[in-house]
Amino acid sequence: MSSQHVTNMRAEIAEQPAALRATISALLPRAPEAGELASGTRHVLLIARGTSDNAAVYGSYLIQVHAGRLATLASPSVATAYRSRVDLSGVLAVALSQSGQTEEIVETLAWARDCGAATLAITNGAASPLAEAAEVAFVTQAGTERAVPATKTFTTQLAALAVLAIGLGAALDPGELRGVPDEVEGMLAVPQQDLDPIVTELAGDRGVVVSGRGLVYAAALELALKLKEACYLHAMGLSYADLLHGPIAVVDARTPAILLAADSGPALDGTVELAQRVAGAGARAYGIGGGDRLAAACTRALPGPRLPEWLAPMGLIVPGQLLTEELSRRLGLDPDHPRGLSKITQTA
Amino acid sequence: MSSQHVTNMRAEIAEQPAALRATISALLPRAPEAGELASGTRHVLLIARGTSDNAAVYGSYLIQVHAGRLATLASPSVATAYRSRVDLSGVLAVALSQSGQTEEIVETLAWARDCGAATLAITNGAASPLAEAAEVAFVTQAGTERAVPATKTFTTQLAALAVLAIGLGAALDPGELRGVPDEVEGMLAVPQQDLDPIVTELAGDRGVVVSGRGLVYAAALELALKLKEACYLHAMGLSYADLLHGPIAVVDARTPAILLAADSGPALDGTVELAQRVAGAGARAYGIGGGDRLAAACTRALPGPRLPEWLAPMGLIVPGQLLTEELSRRLGLDPDHPRGLSKITQTA
After folding, report:
1. How far apart are CA B30 and CA B24, in angstroms?
2. Which residue of B has its CA nearest to A240?
3. What structural domains does chain B harbor?
4. Rounded to a whole number, what is the distance in Å from the CA of B264 to chain A's nearest CA?
5. In sequence order, which residues have a C-beta less than 8 Å from that of residue A127 and are 6 or more positions away?
6. ipTM for the assembly
7. CA A271 from chain center: how many Å?
8. For the whole model, what pTM was predicted?
């Protein structure tokens, strides 16, 4: 960063190991509370917007793949715009909001409770309206976040969702979750050699496709949102399947793809094939994670975390955050203060 | 279109009134079958990809807003990539695929049945594997669709979902549904004055944001997908709320917004305000529907259907289809055969 001041976004990216450590320590002992709250329910309904919605996507895959429960995303406007009555007996409603102050989310969680759901909040706002509206509140320990693009509040939301999945009975090792902060710290300590050339190349593009499959899809969505927010890039976050259902047509010499994958798991093969297809179409393919196989299939690649697939999104987003922050500055923008955005978004 | 031949896409757009008429006639008498199938279930799980996924979004809002049931979207890779076992008792699984041959969707519906769900298919393929895999098949009557970008198969899927909502007990007037084909026919008969200038302006853009709220959100997603498929535009389909949570930053002098709304309903006010905000930021706002109020707030506007909000998406997509087809030709592309795409997408 040479003579430039360190942006809040860059500082907060670096605060993630500590934020994750504090969050996991505070919440892991409370996993059984989620299990008790969920007894008698069969379906998890996740309520969120923006970055928190991307975290919710991770939660939906994690709970379905590892806890054997249906977990899907709510449409808040059913509650807030239409004020419809929906039968939510047998449902655990989980609302996510970093501030805990977004009225639409608070209102939707209250609606879910009125419709018969059990309610849990995941928020960084300990005394926030959202924490107060829920029967159980998992408060993340991210500290104050000053940059508008969320970073540490996102990764700590993922950690809270991992605790929730464990509480819901997922056969996952809490010890592996406890290892995440060290792994993220290790990633931040090593300079990413390809970061600078990727930033240079992306600085000439107006659009990019960001893709990942299954558990990693959430990290792809989140990276696309960061690039839209802080770099004004036309960044499309797409699942592997949805990319093949149409939008693959937009990938070309001026529109690269950024592909994310864990080092293992059933999504890796398809992501490697997708990288080969993108490169074969004459477009640049940038890899994040996916081990040597994805790196070999891509034009350039950033190493991902050495974490099992279920935890990989917490590490995979980190090179994407660094890329976003550096590209934003390279474009002469201020990553901390994107135009048109404020820290708490009210959409009611 | 002067001396150019009529593309398949343009011809199929014009076939929609007949396709809708045949579909509604065939399916409306069968609405009670859906009600019987759904007895004992509380939650509708929609399974789809691509254009069918956009139709599913309409179904999820319609069923939640008007039939009082939770209705959310599945993540097919939970079934196909992870092969997870999820408790789906009390769930009606509804799979949508125009061909009925997409293996991922057939496989996910079979998985849902094995996990305890009741199963219904919505497909244009009468003897397709999807129709055969479901307990009840609602077969749309769109006829053969030759252009790769789906048009009449999309609108007939919406009609089938409207029948499903009625079968699930929604207090909606089937007579209004029967009136849709005539209204779409009327829209197609009147030239849209602003279409040509909008095409001219969009031909110089690389990106566009497409937005709508609530029931109309599905039509916005579908228009964005059409523009990606047939015009290679970086078209982002975003809900009203998600647009305000970050991506509003990308709207600028080179990135217009296309905003869709019904002439009535709780989403209209917010869409008019969004148009004012986009125009106030120095960007072009193009309206589709939303009556005089949305047109007045926009730079240019295309009239929408005179339909109640619950049916408006079937008409609102039509000016978007015409826009896509004309823009694709203007850009020197072939709307019938986008690069990288084939009619049946296999993603398994």
Report:
1. 10
2. B347
3. 8-185 (3.40.50.10490), 190-330 (3.40.50.10490)
4. 12
5. none
6. 0.92
7. 18
8. 0.94
